[in-house]
Amino acid sequence: MVLITEELIRRRAEHNNCEIFSLEEISLHQQEIERIEYIDRWCRELKILYLQNNIISKIENVDKLKKLEYLNLALNNIEQIENLEGCESLQKLDFTVNFIGELSSVESLKQNIHLRELFLVGNPCTEFEGYREFVVATLPQLKWLDGKEIERSDRIKAMQNLRQVQLQIREQEQAYLKKRDKEKQEAKKKLENPYQKEKSEAKESKPGFDGRWYTDINNTILDCEENKECVHETQGTEKHKGSDEDEMDKKFWEEPTPFTPESRLETHRHLEEKRKANDAKRETEKQKPPRKLITEEGRVLNVNEPKHLDTSRLDVDVQTTYIRVTVKGKTFQLVLPSEVKPDSSTAKRSQITGHLVVTMPKAVEVVGPRPTLPRPVKSAPDKAPTDNTRMAKQMERLEVDPSKHSRINLENIVKKEKPVAQGPLKLHRPAMLESLCSTGDFDDDSDVPPLI
C-alpha cells in the first residue's frame, strides 16, 4: 500500500520549486495509491488534481479544496460518487473506467453549480437503460456528458420522462447491488483460502526423475541402483521449479475473472509480489568480480559495461592514450590509435539523439618523458673563489676607446702657435737647433753667429 506523503508531493511538485503551499497543479497518477489523504491540508490552492490509474476505492479528503477545478479519478476502484460538495469551483470531473453502479449518487453533484463536464464511460451504470436521460435531467448545470455535448432538446426530453426513468434506474441499481454482494462474498472466500485450489491441483500430478510430470510417480521412478539416470532427478526438479513459476504466472493471466474492484486489487498485489521476488532474486545472485581495466603488464583494455547513458551520472575521462566513460558505476574504456591532447578535448551530449560526442584533437608531437641529458662533471677548483672574484665575474664592464669618440672635439680645431721669444738672438735657439744640439755629433762653436 502506497501512502500519500509530504515527500511524494514535493517530489511531484518540481515545477513549483518543490513548494506545496502554493501548488496549483499536481499529478499523482500510477503511484498505486489506495487512499486520498493530507492533500486538503497541504495543498489548499490546488486547481488541477490528477489521480488516475491508482487503486483508490473511496472519494475522501478533497472537500476542502475550494479552488479545485479539475479532478481526474479515472482507472480506480470507485463505486460511489460522494464527498465533493465542498469543491465549489469544480468544473470538470473524470470517472472513466471505475465501478460506479449507484447511478443515483450523481445527485450529490447538484451543489457543484460550476460543473460543466462529466465522464462516466466504462462504469457499470452506463449500461443502465435511461442512463443518459437520468444524468442530464438530474444535473441541469452540465454541458458535456462522456465527451458529447448536451443539446437543449435532450434536456427537455429528459425532464419530461424523469419520473419514469428514475423508477427504471432504482430497479437496475438494486439488481446490480445484489450482484455485487455475491461478488464480494466470493472474493472473501478466495482470499481466506488462496492456496486451496493450488493444493488440489498439486495432488493430481507430481514431478518425475526426468523433470516431467506424471499422474502417479510410483509407476515411473526406477530403482537408482539399476538406472544411473536418477542422478539427473535433482537437476530436473530445479529446472521444473522455474518452469512451474512461469506456468503459474501464465495461468494467473489466462484465467477468466470478473471485472470487479477485488480482481483489480488482486492483480496489483500479484504484480507487487512478483516484483519483490525479482528484487530478492537479484540480491541473492553472486556479484561479479571487478573488471580489469589495465592488465598487470600495463596494457589498457577495451571495456563496455553500461547499456544506456544518463547525463546526470556520466563521467568522461580523456587521457593521452585512452578514453574512459563511467555511467552509474559501469565503465566504457577505449584505447586510442594515436595520442591526443586531453586539455583540448571536449564532451557534448546531443539533445536530439542523446549521442555522446567526444572531440579529441591529435597531439602533433608524441607525448613522452623528457630525455635526460648527462650533466658535465665540474672539476674542483684549487682554491675557493673570493668575494671580489665572484663580483668581477658577475659585473662585466664595457671598455670604450676614448680616441674614437663620435663627438667632435672643438678644442683642437685651431692649432695653438708657440709664442715667439723676445730678447737677444743668441739666447733663443730655434727648435731645430735644439734638436741638433741634443745629438752627440754637434759641436757648438761660440765664434759662429747663430742662424736666423
Describe the structure.
This protein has 452 residues and is an alpha/beta fold. It has helices at 6-11, 39-42, 131-138, 152-160, 162-192, 196-204, 233-254, 261-284, 387-394, 431-437, and strands spanning 25-27, 48-50, 70-72, 92-94, 117-119, 144-145, 148-149, 206-207, 213-214, 303-304, 314-318, 322-327, 330-335, 346-349, 356-359. A 7-stranded mixed β-sheet has the order 1-2-3-4-5-6-7, covered by helices on one side. Strands 10-13-12-11 form a 4-stranded antiparallel β-sheet, with no helix packed on it. A two-stranded antiparallel sheet has the order 8-9. Helix 3 packs across helix 4. The longest helix has 31 residues, at 162-192. It is elongated. It starts with 5 loop residues before the first helix and ends in a 15-residue tail after the last helix.
